[in-house]
Amino acid sequence: MQKKTGNKFLDIKDIRIGIVGATGAVGEVALEILESNSHPIENIIAIASPRSEGKKINYSNKYLIVKSFHENMLDFLDVLIISATSAVSRELSTIAKAKGILVIDDGSTFRMDDKVPLVVPEVNAYDIDWHKGIISTPNCTTTPLVMVIDSLRTLGTVIRVNVSTYQAVTGTGSLAKRELINQTKAMIDDNHYEVEVYPHPIGFNLLPHVDEFFSNGYTKEEMKMVNESKKILHDDSINISATCVRVPVRVSHSESVQIEFSNDVKIHEVLKNLNAYKGIEVFDKVDSNHYPTPLNSSGQDSVFVGRVRKDISLSNGISLWLSCDNLRKGASLNALQILNEVKKRDPERFNR
Ligand SMILES: NC(=O)c1ccc[n+]([C@@H]2O[C@H](COP(=O)([O-])OP(=O)(O)OC[C@H]3O[C@@H](n4cnc5c(N)ncnc54)[C@H](OP(=O)(O)O)[C@@H]3O)[C@@H](O)[C@H]2O)c1
């Protein structure tokens, strides 16, 4: 599959961006995207915890020097993109909002807040119009799912979605990536290994457990998929059930999705809609073993969809498989696309 990164279309070079969490899994990729979009280094502040103060990050043959947050930075910045912890999101967004600085938050803190739009630009860019200073990006499993559902809504009413996820360790952050690599090496060499990030080893294993368990037997991650999807799609009537599984993959989440419609849908129409939808690429030639995988979707911007077929257990259902880079479209790219959309909708906002 040819490498395709569509972020060149971002028209945000003049915007002064603070990347909070610049040393983390999501923040690092946000900087990579900005670099490939030729965003001037002078228009970026790389922010992390005091532990990382002074750390150098390669950027366009120069260095960004990591700083810990200080309120004075807001005098220079137009936007804070926060990819850190909930506590950081809460504290910094309050300070930024008071100074009229836009916040785009990658974490879960504001996602279900009625006063905060939760946005995937391809699906609900219009929700940006009612933001009050904070815009949230969805969970990295929700984003590709809602794009696929939205692309098919003209074919009939979607009444039920059943999804199982296969989630990469970078969904938990950079520490989990290290743990996967260390455990895998140690297991191959029959050496001792530490188990720190997850309750069980992730090397050569699968964990049907992403985030904490709720009393209804689902996990927090699974309920995020249910509730965030309804909010983004503005449809409380869709019945969604999710089973989220952590897998020993570095980057890119995959999902096995069954969608039930109120009426019959034809597979050629499904493929036509998926193909026509911005941000989705159909990669589905099973005769030549072509279908999305975490390896071929990582480092790419699109949601890749394959294995599209009639679901033989349902009268009006389809099954499909998708893979999507959790650090790009699942997080940082979506945040930067939101910023691009804010500028498009409100060009005056960033005039100075
Ligand atoms: N990973 C994903 O696939 C994904 C997808 C969607 C959304 N998200 C969300 O994005 C956020 C970041 O996730 P991640 O995977 O990038 O985590 P991560 O790899 O653990 O990185 C966390 C980042 O937060 C920084 N940080 C911690 N405390 C801070 C403080 N007091 N002030 C400023 N920065 C601070 C860390 O800086 P230090 O290096 O200095 O500690 C680091 O840069 C989370 O809210 C997560 O839910 C992640």
Describe the structure using short key phrases.
Rossmann fold, binds NADP nicotinamide-adenine-dinucleotide phosphate, 352 residues, 6-stranded mixed sheet, Dihydrodipicolinate Reductase, domain 2, 14 strands, 6-stranded parallel sheet
Care to describe what's here?
The structure is a single chain. The protein is α/β, with parallel strands linked by helices. The chain has 2 domains: 154 residues, 3-Layer(aba) Sandwich (Rossmann fold), CATH 3.40.50.720; 148 residues, Dihydrodipicolinate Reductase, domain 2. Helix content is 29%, strand content 22%. The protein contains 9 helices and 14 strands. The strands form 3 sheets. The protein has a 6-stranded parallel sheet, with helices on both faces. Strands 10-9-11-14-13-12 form a 6-stranded mixed sheet. Strand 3 and strand 4 form a beta hairpin. Helix 1 packs across helix 9 and helix 4 runs parallel beside helix 6. The protein is globular and about 60 Å long. It starts with 16 loop residues before the first strand and ends in a 7-residue tail after the last helix. The chain binds NADP nicotinamide-adenine-dinucleotide phosphate (NAP). The site of NADP nicotinamide-adenine-dinucleotide phosphate has 30 residues, from helix 1, strand 2 and helix 9.
